[in-house]
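Folding Task

Wanted — backbone structure
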Amino acid sequence: MSGALRIAILGAESTGKTELARALAAQLAARTGMRCTWVGEWLRDWCEREGRTPRADEQAAIARTQQAHIDAAAAAHDIVVCDTTAVMTAVYSELIFGDRSLAAYAAVEQRRCDLTLLTALDLPWVADGLQRDGPHVREPVDAGLRALLAAHGLRWTRIAGSGRARVEAALDAAMALVSVPPGRPEGTERPKGPEGAPEWPGGQRTK
């Protein structure tokens, strides 16, 4: 594997991104013996620090900081699981502020990811302080994510199910890209794949 394998987890609020990122990184480390880590969502830390949600003019810095954290993790690990990327900031910027200026930057950064997992809207919505606006925004965010990824020809795999099934679906998609180093054999029992085939914008599999 040349450089760190980057796995991005995108999805609307309360679709299990953080829990999935943690679990997937742990499972990949156990399965491969490689240096694996996960990068949390900078927006969450930002909101806790500032005690509010960001303004329109603060969105770009949040997106770039998220990517800087991912780059730093990639420099020191073999596999990095990203709990959101700049794409999420771009989608929310358009949805909340009508600002599409971050889309091009977010797409360029997303293209550096080897795998993009899009979490399904099949988990119950749970309140989480300043970060979550309500269940009514989940479908518009999901649609915005699909639209941005499709517009830039970025491939993605949908991850559904709950608990272990959700993690195994993500693990199956990730392990398809991992070359396990000699002497570190992959576990003999492969997890079952997600229900249905991976989804690709417009039927295209071009990254």
Summary: The first helix runs from residue 17 to 32. The radius of gyration is 16 Å.
